[in-house]
Design a protein that fits this description.
By secondary structure, the protein is mostly beta strands. The chain is built from 2 helices and 26 strands. The chain has an 18-stranded antiparallel sheet that branches.
Protein backbone atom coordinates (compact mmCIF):
# COMPACT_ATOMS: atom_id res chain seq x y z
CA UNK A 1 0.00 0.00 0.00
CA UNK A 2 1.52 3.32 -1.13
CA UNK A 3 -0.27 5.55 1.38
CA UNK A 4 -2.42 8.67 1.11
CA UNK A 5 -0.84 11.93 -0.18
CA UNK A 6 -1.61 14.91 2.01
CA UNK A 7 -2.95 17.03 -0.84
CA UNK A 8 -5.42 14.56 -2.35
CA UNK A 9 -8.12 15.36 0.18
CA UNK A 10 -11.57 16.77 -0.44
CA UNK A 11 -13.28 18.65 2.40
CA UNK A 12 -17.05 18.45 1.95
CA UNK A 13 -19.90 19.71 4.10
CA UNK A 14 -23.66 19.71 4.15
CA UNK A 15 -26.21 21.00 6.63
CA UNK A 16 -27.83 18.36 8.84
CA UNK A 17 -31.56 17.88 9.23
CA UNK A 18 -31.11 17.37 12.98
CA UNK A 19 -28.09 18.05 15.17
CA UNK A 20 -25.71 15.10 15.03
CA UNK A 21 -27.91 13.23 12.56
CA UNK A 22 -25.43 13.51 9.71
CA UNK A 23 -26.19 14.01 6.05
CA UNK A 24 -25.59 12.22 2.76
CA UNK A 25 -26.06 12.51 -0.97
CA UNK A 26 -25.84 15.63 -3.11
CA UNK A 27 -26.28 19.38 -2.56
CA UNK A 28 -23.24 19.68 -0.30
CA UNK A 29 -20.29 22.00 -0.88
CA UNK A 30 -16.50 21.74 -1.11
CA UNK A 31 -14.30 23.81 1.18
CA UNK A 32 -11.35 25.30 -0.71
CA UNK A 33 -8.53 24.58 1.74
CA UNK A 34 -5.01 25.96 1.85
CA UNK A 35 -1.73 24.09 2.15
CA UNK A 36 -1.06 23.05 5.73
CA UNK A 37 -4.71 22.76 6.71
CA UNK A 38 -5.04 21.04 10.08
CA UNK A 39 -8.65 19.95 9.75
CA UNK A 40 -10.92 18.47 12.39
CA UNK A 41 -9.84 16.07 15.12
CA UNK A 42 -11.73 13.81 17.49
CA UNK A 43 -10.58 13.87 21.11
CA UNK A 44 -11.75 11.76 24.04
CA UNK A 45 -11.47 12.41 27.77
CA UNK A 46 -8.98 10.17 29.54
CA UNK A 47 -10.49 8.40 32.56
CA UNK A 48 -7.86 7.01 34.93
CA UNK A 49 -8.50 4.77 37.91
CA UNK A 50 -6.79 6.32 40.98
CA UNK A 51 -6.48 2.94 42.73
CA UNK A 52 -3.11 2.32 44.40
CA UNK A 53 -2.25 -1.27 43.56
CA UNK A 54 0.05 -3.46 45.63
CA UNK A 55 1.96 -4.52 42.53
CA UNK A 56 3.03 -0.93 41.82
CA UNK A 57 1.22 -0.77 38.49
CA UNK A 58 -1.80 1.04 37.10
CA UNK A 59 -5.10 -0.29 35.88
CA UNK A 60 -5.89 0.41 32.23
CA UNK A 61 -7.49 3.79 31.61
CA UNK A 62 -10.79 4.26 29.78
CA UNK A 63 -11.85 6.78 27.19
CA UNK A 64 -14.80 9.00 28.04
CA UNK A 65 -16.61 11.90 26.39
CA UNK A 66 -15.96 12.69 22.74
CA UNK A 67 -15.33 16.13 21.29
CA UNK A 68 -14.52 17.36 17.80
CA UNK A 69 -12.64 20.58 17.11
CA UNK A 70 -10.44 22.17 14.50
CA UNK A 71 -10.31 24.78 11.78
CA UNK A 72 -10.11 25.20 8.02
CA UNK A 73 -8.16 28.11 6.46
CA UNK A 74 -8.90 29.34 2.97
CA UNK A 75 -8.53 32.29 0.62
CA UNK A 76 -11.44 34.72 0.64
CA UNK A 77 -13.30 34.65 -2.66
CA UNK A 78 -16.71 35.75 -3.86
CA UNK A 79 -19.54 33.34 -3.03
CA UNK A 80 -17.31 30.56 -1.74
CA UNK A 81 -17.92 30.79 2.00
CA UNK A 82 -21.45 32.23 2.18
CA UNK A 83 -22.88 29.11 3.82
CA UNK A 84 -20.51 29.14 6.77
CA UNK A 85 -20.59 32.92 7.13
CA UNK A 86 -24.38 32.71 7.48
CA UNK A 87 -24.03 29.83 9.95
CA UNK A 88 -21.61 31.85 12.07
CA UNK A 89 -23.93 34.86 11.99
CA UNK A 90 -26.86 32.53 12.81
CA UNK A 91 -28.86 34.13 10.03
CA UNK A 92 -29.49 33.82 6.30
CA UNK A 93 -28.37 36.05 3.44
CA UNK A 94 -30.96 38.42 2.06
CA UNK A 95 -30.71 38.02 -1.72
CA UNK A 96 -29.73 40.79 -4.10
CA UNK A 97 -32.92 42.58 -5.14
CA UNK A 98 -33.92 45.34 -7.52
CA UNK A 99 -35.94 47.43 -5.09
CA UNK A 100 -37.58 49.73 -7.61
CA UNK A 101 -37.49 51.15 -11.12
CA UNK A 102 -38.27 54.81 -11.63
CA UNK A 103 -41.27 55.43 -13.84
CA UNK A 104 -42.03 59.12 -13.47
CA UNK A 105 -44.84 58.32 -11.05
CA UNK A 106 -45.45 59.69 -7.58
CA UNK A 107 -43.55 56.98 -5.66
CA UNK A 108 -40.45 56.77 -7.88
CA UNK A 109 -40.33 59.85 -10.01
CA UNK A 110 -36.56 59.88 -10.61
CA UNK A 111 -33.10 59.21 -9.24
CA UNK A 112 -30.12 61.53 -9.47
CA UNK A 113 -26.45 61.27 -8.46
CA UNK A 114 -24.86 64.54 -7.39
CA UNK A 115 -21.42 65.65 -6.19
CA UNK A 116 -20.30 62.09 -7.07
CA UNK A 117 -21.46 60.53 -3.78
CA UNK A 118 -25.12 61.46 -3.21
CA UNK A 119 -28.17 59.61 -4.51
CA UNK A 120 -31.47 61.50 -4.40
CA UNK A 121 -34.89 59.97 -4.93
CA UNK A 122 -37.71 62.22 -6.05
CA UNK A 123 -40.88 60.49 -4.95
CA UNK A 124 -42.94 59.46 -1.95
CA UNK A 125 -41.12 56.16 -1.37
CA UNK A 126 -38.49 55.72 1.38
CA UNK A 127 -35.07 54.12 1.19
CA UNK A 128 -35.24 53.32 4.92
CA UNK A 129 -38.77 52.22 5.76
CA UNK A 130 -39.85 50.68 2.46
CA UNK A 131 -36.63 49.11 1.23
CA UNK A 132 -34.63 48.58 4.42
CA UNK A 133 -31.45 50.32 3.29
CA UNK A 134 -28.90 50.59 6.11
CA UNK A 135 -25.49 52.16 6.61
CA UNK A 136 -22.86 49.67 5.43
CA UNK A 137 -25.04 48.16 2.71
CA UNK A 138 -23.73 47.96 -0.83
CA UNK A 139 -26.01 49.40 -3.51
CA UNK A 140 -26.02 49.69 -7.28
CA UNK A 141 -28.01 51.89 -9.62
CA UNK A 142 -28.75 51.16 -13.26
CA UNK A 143 -30.04 52.69 -16.51
CA UNK A 144 -28.40 56.02 -15.67
CA UNK A 145 -25.32 55.87 -17.88
CA UNK A 146 -21.58 55.21 -17.84
CA UNK A 147 -19.76 56.11 -14.64
CA UNK A 148 -22.83 55.29 -12.56
CA UNK A 149 -24.44 52.04 -13.73
CA UNK A 150 -23.56 48.93 -11.72
CA UNK A 151 -20.87 50.65 -9.66
CA UNK A 152 -20.51 49.22 -6.15
CA UNK A 153 -21.31 51.95 -3.63
CA UNK A 154 -21.20 51.58 0.16
CA UNK A 155 -23.89 53.46 2.07
CA UNK A 156 -22.41 56.05 4.46
CA UNK A 157 -25.66 57.73 5.52
CA UNK A 158 -29.28 57.12 4.64
CA UNK A 159 -32.45 59.18 4.96
CA UNK A 160 -35.88 58.64 3.47
CA UNK A 161 -34.98 60.10 0.07
CA UNK A 162 -31.22 60.69 0.17
CA UNK A 163 -28.26 58.31 0.40
CA UNK A 164 -24.62 59.34 0.66
CA UNK A 165 -21.95 56.76 -0.10
CA UNK A 166 -18.31 56.34 0.87
CA UNK A 167 -15.81 57.96 -1.45
CA UNK A 168 -16.75 59.45 -4.80
CA UNK A 169 -17.67 56.47 -6.97
CA UNK A 170 -20.21 58.12 -9.28
CA UNK A 171 -20.37 60.58 -12.12
CA UNK A 172 -22.98 63.34 -11.84
CA UNK A 173 -26.26 62.35 -13.49
CA UNK A 174 -29.36 64.52 -13.30
CA UNK A 175 -32.88 63.30 -12.58
CA UNK A 176 -33.42 60.04 -14.46
CA UNK A 177 -37.00 58.76 -14.75
CA UNK A 178 -35.92 55.23 -15.82
CA UNK A 179 -33.24 54.48 -13.21
CA UNK A 180 -33.16 51.27 -11.19
CA UNK A 181 -32.09 50.84 -7.56
CA UNK A 182 -30.58 47.57 -6.32
CA UNK A 183 -29.66 46.44 -2.81
CA UNK A 184 -26.92 43.82 -2.87
CA UNK A 185 -26.93 40.50 -1.03
CA UNK A 186 -26.08 40.71 2.69
CA UNK A 187 -26.21 39.01 6.06
CA UNK A 188 -26.11 40.52 9.55
CA UNK A 189 -25.81 38.95 12.95
CA UNK A 190 -28.26 39.61 15.76
CA UNK A 191 -31.50 39.98 13.80
CA UNK A 192 -32.40 36.33 14.31
CA UNK A 193 -30.66 33.31 15.82
CA UNK A 194 -31.12 30.52 13.30
CA UNK A 195 -28.78 27.71 14.33
CA UNK A 196 -27.38 25.17 11.88
CA UNK A 197 -25.10 22.15 12.17
CA UNK A 198 -23.08 20.31 9.55
CA UNK A 199 -21.82 16.94 8.45
CA UNK A 200 -18.19 17.51 7.46
CA UNK A 201 -16.41 14.87 5.43
CA UNK A 202 -12.65 14.70 4.99
CA UNK A 203 -12.53 12.36 1.99
CA UNK A 204 -9.15 10.77 1.22
CA UNK A 205 -9.34 10.12 -2.49
CA UNK A 206 -6.44 7.69 -2.94
CA UNK A 207 -7.56 5.25 -0.26
CA UNK A 208 -11.27 5.94 -0.92
CA UNK A 209 -12.11 6.42 2.75
CA UNK A 210 -13.20 9.36 4.83
CA UNK A 211 -13.48 10.78 8.30
CA UNK A 212 -17.12 11.67 8.89
CA UNK A 213 -17.71 14.42 11.45
CA UNK A 214 -21.26 15.16 12.57
CA UNK A 215 -22.91 17.74 14.77
CA UNK A 216 -20.43 20.42 13.66
CA UNK A 217 -21.23 24.06 14.36
CA UNK A 218 -19.32 27.01 12.89
CA UNK A 219 -18.07 29.01 15.87
CA UNK A 220 -15.47 31.45 14.58
CA UNK A 221 -14.09 33.20 11.53
CA UNK A 222 -10.74 34.95 11.35
CA UNK A 223 -10.15 37.40 8.53
CA UNK A 224 -6.55 38.42 7.83
CA UNK A 225 -5.51 41.03 5.30
CA UNK A 226 -1.96 42.08 4.36
CA UNK A 227 -0.68 44.01 1.33
CA UNK A 228 1.60 41.16 0.19
CA UNK A 229 -0.79 38.21 0.50
CA UNK A 230 -4.21 36.93 -0.36
CA UNK A 231 -7.02 37.79 2.04
CA UNK A 232 -7.20 34.81 4.36
CA UNK A 233 -10.27 33.45 6.07
CA UNK A 234 -10.22 30.69 8.68
CA UNK A 235 -13.29 29.00 10.16
CA UNK A 236 -13.23 27.29 13.54
CA UNK A 237 -15.65 24.44 14.26
CA UNK A 238 -16.70 22.19 17.12
CA UNK A 239 -18.58 18.94 16.65
CA UNK A 240 -20.17 15.98 18.38
CA UNK A 241 -18.71 12.80 16.89
CA UNK A 242 -16.58 11.19 14.19
CA UNK A 243 -16.79 7.84 12.37
CA UNK A 244 -14.86 6.25 9.51
CA UNK A 245 -16.45 6.10 6.10
CA UNK A 246 -15.11 2.86 4.65
CA UNK A 247 -14.07 2.15 1.08
CA UNK A 248 -16.11 0.05 -1.31
CA UNK A 249 -18.80 2.47 -2.40
CA UNK A 250 -19.66 3.88 1.04
CA UNK A 251 -17.54 6.98 0.47
CA UNK A 252 -17.71 9.74 -0.32
CA UNK A 253 -20.85 10.08 1.76
CA UNK A 254 -21.45 13.59 0.41
CA UNK A 255 -21.64 13.13 -3.35
CA UNK A 256 -21.43 15.68 -6.19
CA UNK A 257 -20.78 18.70 -3.97
CA UNK A 258 -20.71 22.23 -5.37
CA UNK A 259 -17.16 23.37 -6.13
CA UNK A 260 -16.41 27.09 -6.23
CA UNK A 261 -13.97 28.64 -8.69
CA UNK A 262 -14.10 32.40 -8.02
CA UNK A 263 -10.75 34.18 -7.91
CA UNK A 264 -8.94 34.69 -4.61
CA UNK A 265 -9.12 38.27 -3.35
CA UNK A 266 -6.09 40.38 -2.40
CA UNK A 267 -5.94 43.39 -0.12
CA UNK A 268 -4.13 45.65 -2.59
CA UNK A 269 -7.36 45.77 -4.62
CA UNK A 270 -9.42 46.73 -1.56
CA UNK A 271 -11.00 50.01 -0.51
CA UNK A 272 -10.75 50.71 3.22
CA UNK A 273 -12.72 53.39 5.03
CA UNK A 274 -12.26 54.11 8.72
CA UNK A 275 -14.58 56.52 10.55
CA UNK A 276 -16.13 57.44 7.21
CA UNK A 277 -12.87 58.48 5.56
CA UNK A 278 -10.76 56.64 3.00
CA UNK A 279 -7.47 55.53 4.51
CA UNK A 280 -4.38 54.52 2.56
CA UNK A 281 -1.97 54.03 5.48
CA UNK A 282 -3.29 50.68 6.77
CA UNK A 283 -0.53 48.08 6.53
CA UNK A 284 -2.56 45.06 7.66
CA UNK A 285 -5.12 43.76 10.03
CA UNK A 286 -7.03 40.87 11.49
CA UNK A 287 -10.62 40.49 12.65
CA UNK A 288 -11.96 37.48 14.55
CA UNK A 289 -15.68 36.81 14.93
CA UNK A 290 -16.10 34.31 17.76
CA UNK A 291 -19.13 32.61 19.33
CA UNK A 292 -17.11 30.73 21.93
CA UNK A 293 -18.97 27.45 22.16
CA UNK A 294 -18.60 24.29 24.17
CA UNK A 295 -20.06 20.84 24.65
CA UNK A 296 -21.07 19.23 27.93
CA UNK A 297 -20.16 15.84 29.34
CA UNK A 298 -23.16 13.75 30.39
CA UNK A 299 -23.71 10.44 32.14
CA UNK A 300 -24.78 7.51 29.99
CA UNK A 301 -23.35 8.79 26.71
CA UNK A 302 -19.97 9.73 25.28
CA UNK A 303 -21.64 12.42 23.16
CA UNK A 304 -22.52 15.98 24.09
CA UNK A 305 -26.23 16.71 23.48
CA UNK A 306 -25.28 19.83 21.52
CA UNK A 307 -22.59 22.42 20.91
CA UNK A 308 -23.63 25.53 22.83
CA UNK A 309 -22.67 28.90 21.35
CA UNK A 310 -22.23 32.17 23.20
CA UNK A 311 -22.76 35.77 22.06
CA UNK A 312 -20.79 37.11 19.11
CA UNK A 313 -17.45 38.63 20.12
CA UNK A 314 -15.40 40.65 17.66
CA UNK A 315 -11.73 41.30 18.36
CA UNK A 316 -8.67 41.98 16.27
CA UNK A 317 -6.13 44.60 15.35
CA UNK A 318 -5.05 46.92 12.58
CA UNK A 319 -1.58 48.20 11.81
CA UNK A 320 -0.97 51.56 10.17
CA UNK A 321 1.70 54.13 9.34
CA UNK A 322 1.62 56.84 12.00
CA UNK A 323 0.94 60.17 10.30
CA UNK A 324 -0.18 62.41 13.18
CA UNK A 325 -1.32 62.36 16.81
CA UNK A 326 -4.12 64.91 17.02
CA UNK A 327 -7.31 63.41 15.54
CA UNK A 328 -5.52 60.11 15.04
CA UNK A 329 -5.88 56.46 16.04
CA UNK A 330 -4.12 57.33 19.29
CA UNK A 331 -6.55 60.18 19.94
CA UNK A 332 -9.53 57.86 19.45
CA UNK A 333 -8.02 55.43 21.96
CA UNK A 334 -7.48 58.17 24.53
CA UNK A 335 -11.04 59.45 24.06
CA UNK A 336 -12.47 55.90 24.24
CA UNK A 337 -14.35 56.52 21.02
CA UNK A 338 -16.55 53.46 20.52
CA UNK A 339 -18.39 54.14 17.28
CA UNK A 340 -15.53 53.94 14.79
CA UNK A 341 -16.97 52.47 11.57
CA UNK A 342 -14.83 50.13 9.47
CA UNK A 343 -15.58 49.32 5.82
CA UNK A 344 -13.50 46.71 3.96
CA UNK A 345 -14.47 46.32 0.30
CA UNK A 346 -12.55 43.45 -1.31
CA UNK A 347 -13.03 43.26 -5.08
CA UNK A 348 -12.09 41.04 -7.98
CA UNK A 349 -9.55 42.58 -10.40
CA UNK A 350 -12.10 43.23 -13.15
CA UNK A 351 -11.53 46.01 -15.64
CA UNK A 352 -15.19 46.87 -16.10
CA UNK A 353 -18.35 46.99 -14.02
CA UNK A 354 -20.13 45.15 -12.54
CA UNK A 355 -17.25 44.10 -10.30
CA UNK A 356 -17.77 41.18 -7.92
CA UNK A 357 -16.98 41.88 -4.28
CA UNK A 358 -17.11 40.91 -0.62
CA UNK A 359 -17.76 43.77 1.80
CA UNK A 360 -17.22 43.60 5.55
CA UNK A 361 -18.77 46.39 7.61
CA UNK A 362 -18.31 46.88 11.34
CA UNK A 363 -20.39 49.79 12.66
CA UNK A 364 -18.99 50.01 16.17
CA UNK A 365 -15.30 49.51 16.88
CA UNK A 366 -13.45 50.66 19.98
CA UNK A 367 -9.67 51.03 20.11
CA UNK A 368 -8.07 49.15 23.00
CA UNK A 369 -4.56 50.55 22.67
CA UNK A 370 -1.93 52.04 20.37
CA UNK A 371 1.70 50.92 20.36
CA UNK A 372 4.48 51.66 17.88
CA UNK A 373 7.87 50.37 16.73
CA UNK A 374 10.08 53.19 17.95
CA UNK A 375 13.65 53.01 16.68
CA UNK A 376 13.04 50.65 13.76
CA UNK A 377 14.09 51.47 10.22
CA UNK A 378 11.42 52.66 7.81
CA UNK A 379 7.97 53.98 8.64
CA UNK A 380 6.75 54.19 12.22
CA UNK A 381 4.06 51.50 12.40
CA UNK A 382 1.41 51.59 15.09
CA UNK A 383 -0.56 48.55 16.19
CA UNK A 384 -4.12 49.16 17.34
CA UNK A 385 -6.08 46.34 19.00
CA UNK A 386 -9.84 46.70 18.44
CA UNK A 387 -13.06 45.43 19.95
CA UNK A 388 -16.48 45.29 18.27
CA UNK A 389 -19.89 45.16 19.88
CA UNK A 390 -23.55 45.41 18.95
CA UNK A 391 -24.64 48.67 17.38
CA UNK A 392 -27.34 50.37 19.41
CA UNK A 393 -30.74 50.65 17.73
CA UNK A 394 -30.32 53.73 15.54
CA UNK A 395 -32.32 54.87 12.53
CA UNK A 396 -30.54 53.86 9.36
CA UNK A 397 -28.40 51.13 10.98
CA UNK A 398 -28.74 47.42 11.51
CA UNK A 399 -28.63 46.58 15.22
CA UNK A 400 -25.72 44.22 14.62
CA UNK A 401 -22.05 43.67 15.31
CA UNK A 402 -21.24 43.27 11.61
CA UNK A 403 -22.68 43.08 8.11
CA UNK A 404 -21.20 41.12 5.23
CA UNK A 405 -22.40 41.91 1.72
CA UNK A 406 -21.49 40.22 -1.54
CA UNK A 407 -22.34 40.25 -5.22
CA UNK A 408 -22.92 36.48 -5.37
Amino acid sequence: MSGQPGVNVSIRYKVEGTFGGGASGGSGEVFRIQKGTGGLTLARTLIEDPEVRKDGQRSMARLGAKSVSGSYPGTLSVGTFNTWIAALFRNTFAATAVKFTCDGGAAHTSLATTVTNTLTLVGTDSFITTHGVRVGDVIRVGAMGAGVDNVNAVVATVAANVITVLGTPWANVGADANATFTLMKKVTNGATLTRSSYHVEEYFEDIDEGEEFVGCRVLSMKLTFQPTAVVKVEFGLMGQDMTIGAAGGATPVLTSPTEYTSIGLVAVDASIFLAGASIATITGGELTFDLGGQGVEVIGSALTPDIYEGPMKLTGHITAVRTLLTGSHLARFLAETDNVELSLLFVEPDAAVPIDFVHVFVPRLKYLGDSSNLGDDGALIETIPVYGAAKATTTGYDAATATISTSV
